[in-house]
TrEMBL record:
<dbReference type="InterPro" id="IPR013785">
    <property type="entry name" value="Aldolase_TIM"/>
</dbReference>
<feature type="binding site">
    <location>
        <position position="179"/>
    </location>
    <ligand>
        <name>substrate</name>
    </ligand>
</feature>
<dbReference type="GO" id="GO:0005737">
    <property type="term" value="C:cytoplasm"/>
</dbReference>
<keyword id="KW-0119">Carbohydrate metabolism</keyword>
<feature type="binding site">
    <location>
        <begin position="144"/>
        <end position="147"/>
    </location>
    <ligand>
        <name>substrate</name>
    </ligand>
</feature>
<feature type="binding site">
    <location>
        <position position="68"/>
    </location>
    <ligand>
        <name>a divalent metal cation</name>
    </ligand>
</feature>
<dbReference type="InterPro" id="IPR011060">
    <property type="entry name" value="RibuloseP-bd_barrel"/>
</dbReference>
<feature type="active site" description="Proton donor">
    <location>
        <position position="177"/>
    </location>
</feature>
<feature type="binding site">
    <location>
        <begin position="199"/>
        <end position="200"/>
    </location>
    <ligand>
        <name>substrate</name>
    </ligand>
</feature>
<dbReference type="GO" id="GO:0004750">
    <property type="term" value="F:D-ribulose-phosphate 3-epimerase activity"/>
</dbReference>
<feature type="binding site">
    <location>
        <position position="34"/>
    </location>
    <ligand>
        <name>a divalent metal cation</name>
    </ligand>
</feature>
<dbReference type="GO" id="GO:0046872">
    <property type="term" value="F:metal ion binding"/>
</dbReference>
<keyword id="KW-0862">Zinc</keyword>
<dbReference type="InterPro" id="IPR000056">
    <property type="entry name" value="Ribul_P_3_epim-like"/>
</dbReference>
<protein>
    <recommendedName>
        <fullName>Ribulose-phosphate 3-epimerase</fullName>
        <ecNumber>5.1.3.1</ecNumber>
    </recommendedName>
</protein>
<dbReference type="GO" id="GO:0019323">
    <property type="term" value="P:pentose catabolic process"/>
</dbReference>
<feature type="binding site">
    <location>
        <begin position="177"/>
        <end position="179"/>
    </location>
    <ligand>
        <name>substrate</name>
    </ligand>
</feature>
């Protein structure tokens, strides 16, 4: 069985008690903290920045923090996130003027790097940068909000990317973000994903451990 990672999106966490809530979801069995950064410019919503990432580290959160940048421009915020304790930094290729430079910047800052594809973003952005990627993130909703429904066309796109990764011979994570629930996670995994972002599916429940265990059970079946 591939090693699957479950990454709760803290967009749906309790922002008034963020440290506590993040600690609780990690204790419940989550692997990675998915940290959604929105700028009310690239996407129509506004969330959190490097200060909050640093605050989580200061609070004692040690799990990898997966920073999903939905901002434009991208580059100037990257060193701030690296200093604030980000482990992975992903960005949308349409939001960067120089994709290779942005990927290199993330790596030079000591983080893992990834590209994010919106549902209608073509995969050709991968053509010349596979050697710089640690993660490919496919959005299965249009970015900006939690709680949307999974767009079924993502399954086919996942299969295509899984093939591209196999052909590259590189160890690249295939992450999926948006509308992931216990009842669709198995078919998403079957299409090739190995890292699952889930916001509302986890944080809307009172027992995080139960949802995460159900997700792992689905992944094992
Ligand atoms: C959407 C964000 C997602 C979102 C997922 O723009 O990137 O990470 O929080 O939330 P759910 O799992 O509720 O679709
Ligand atoms: Zn996200």
């Amino acid at each position: 069985m591939p090693d699957y990672l479950i990454a709760p999106s803290i967009l749906s966490a309790d922002f008034a008690r963020l440290g506590e809530d993040v600690e609780r979801v990690l204790q419940a069995g989550a692997d990675v903290v998915h940290f959604d950064v929105m700028d009310n410019h690239y996407v129509p919503n506004l969330t959190i920045g490097p200060m909050v990432c640093q605050a989580l580290r200061n609070y004692g959160i040690q799990a990898p923090i997966d920073v999903h940048l939905m901002v434009k421009p991208v580059d100037r915020i990257i060193p701030d996130f690296a200093k604030a304790g980000a482990s992975i930094i992903t960005f949308h290729p349409e939001a960067s003027e120089h994709i290779d430079r942005t990927l290199q910047l993330i790596k030079d800052e000591g983080c893992q790097a990834g590209l994010v594809f919106n549902p209608a973003t073509p995969l050709h952005y991968l053509d010349h940068v596979m050697d710089k990627l640690d993660v490919i993130l496919l959005m299965s909703v249009n970015p900006g909000f939690g709680g949307q429904s999974f767009i079924p066309g993502t399954l086919d796109k996942l299969r295509q990317v899984r093939q591209l990764i196999a052909r590259s011979g590189r160890d690249i994570r295939l992450e999926v973000d948006g509308g992931v629930k216990t009842d669709n996670i198995a078919e998403i995994a079957a299409a090739g994903a190995d890292m699952f972002v889930a916001g509302s599916a986890i944080f809307s429940q009172s027992d995080y451990a139960k949802v995460i265990a159900e997700m792992r059970q689905q992944l094992a079946s």
